[in-house]
Specification:
binds NADPH dihydro-nicotinamide-adenine-dinucleotide phosphate, GDP_fucose/colitose_synth, 2 domains, Rossmann fold, alpha/beta, about 45% helix, UDP-galactose 4-epimerase, domain 1, EC 1.1.1.271, isomerase activity, binds the ligand C[C@H]1O[C@H](OP(=O)(O)OP(=O)(O)OC[C@H]2O[C@@H](n3cnc4c(=O)[nH]c(N)nc43)[C@H](O)[C@@H]2O)[C@@H](O)[C@@H](O)C1=O, NADP+ binding, 6-stranded parallel sheet, single chain, NADP, 10 helices
């Protein structure tokens, strides 16, 4: 990284913000693009790359959302993510970018893959229907990076993060992932003195969570040390049922009421714990335990609520 220019695509998002925080500790120049550069537009992306010619790219821009957003807006998730991946990867090839890291997601794996899921489970079975569109776009991105390595010799690599959370998350009630949704719901129920909250689905699906700062460390390690076609899993190695997660979030937030389930909402895949042994062998390990990470995320939520209301945030 020393002396290189690194373009963080999607720097306003949760992962992009974490990457910028992490790259600020490196001897590199961070490049970002205005949001007016719509990465779905081929000419805009080509123009930006021709002007800035980054040495390295981390592709953390995507149409992202939780289970409900994925299920109800598959057209956007498929089109936007295919277009963003194709435009950025092709522009990087044209401008001879020396390193590119594409970010996929653990939802690329078959719904009933053996657990923990190793990288070679890709394309061995049917996908989870709630996020099939997003998964297909992400698989296309992995395959494009791999094909460009094979055909053109581009040093393009891919990482598959598990479910992420942390500062800068999306707290929208309908489109968010489970952790920000539960933080928000428990916080507002506590403030309103309500005696219960409901979680979507049955509470039995298991999920593996990783704090976004641990992902940023993994990305820098891969950028500096990894150069191969094989995509790399990035997970914490631990999962838990959503019902238990909800109890943990309630404890962190200080909500003491009942936690009900809402089986009319989708459960999604029953389990997607990844095998991250390849990355561990390179010397990476997560540093942030789930409960500590949830406290950090709740503090960030309080800061963002306070900014919205123009007041000083309370202590969590
Ligand atoms: N969050 C998670 O749990 C996981 C995320 N990932 C991957 O990590 C990456 C980042 O996700 P995350 O940070 O959570 O998502 P966010 O939604 O927080 O950030 C995505 C960023 O991409 C930008 N973006 C979206 N569309 C365009 C576009 N057409 N042109 C320019 N910029 C665009 C968004 O800008 P704007 O908001 O202005 O539209 C936003 O800043 C994605 O590739 C995602 O697939 C992988 C596994 C899990
Ligand atoms: C990262 C990953 O994110 C998405 O997949 P997902 O893992 O299913 O993500 P999720 O965080 O939205 O839900 C996790 C679990 O939690 C349950 N759940 C309970 N209560 C709420 C709730 O209030 N909101 C949400 N969103 N989920 C809830 C929910 O029913 C599910 O069982 C993919 O579409 C895809 O984008 C992807 O790759």
């Amino acid at each position: 990284m020393a002396g290189k220019s690194v373009y963080v695509a999607g720097h306003r998002g949760m992962v992009g913000q974490a990457l910028v925080r992490r790259l600020e500790q490196e001897d590199c120049r961070i490049l970002t693009a205005e949001r007016s550069v719509d990465l779905r537009e081929q000419a805009a992306v080509r123009g930006w790359f021709a002007q800035h010619r980054p040495d390295a790219v981390v592709l953390a821009a995507a149409r992202v959302g939780g289970i409900m957003a994925n299920q109800t807006r598959p057209g956007e998730f498929l089109y936007d993510n295919i277009a963003i991946a194709a435009n950025v990867i092709e522009a990087a090839r044209q401008q001879e970018t020396s390193k590119l890291l594409f970010l996929g997601s653990s939802c690329i794996y078959p719904k009933f893959a053996d657990q923990p899921i190793a990288e070679d489970a890709l394309l061995t079975g049917p996908l989870e229907p709630t996020n099939e569109a997003y998964a297909i776009a992400k698989i296309a991105g992995i395959k494009l990076a791999a094909a460009y390595r094979r055909q053109y010799g581009c040093d393009f690599i891919s990482a598959m993060p598990t479910n992420l959370y942390g500062p800068g998350d999306n707290y929208d009630a309908d489109s968010s992932h489970v952790i920000p949704a539960l933080i928000r719901r428990a916080h507002h129920a506590k403030a309103a003195g309500e005696d219960s909250i409901a979680i979507w689905g049955t509470g039995t699906p298991r999920r593996e969570f990783l704090h976004v700062d641990d992902l940023a460390d993994a990305c820098v390690l891969l950028l500096e040390n990894y150069s191969d076609e094989q995509h790399i899993n990035v997970g914490s190695g631990k999962d838990l049922p959503i019902g238990q997660l909800a109890a943990l979030v309630a404890r962190v937030v200080g909500f003491t009421g009942r936690i009900d389930t809402d089986p009319s909402k989708p459960d999604g895949t029953p389990r997607k714990l990844m095998d991250s042994a390849r990355l561990s062998a390179m010397g990476w390990a997560p540093r942030i335990a789930l409960e500590d990470g949830l406290r950090d995320a709740y503090a960030a939520f309080l800061r963002s609520e306070a900014r919205g209301m123009g007041v000083t945030p309370p202590t969590p």
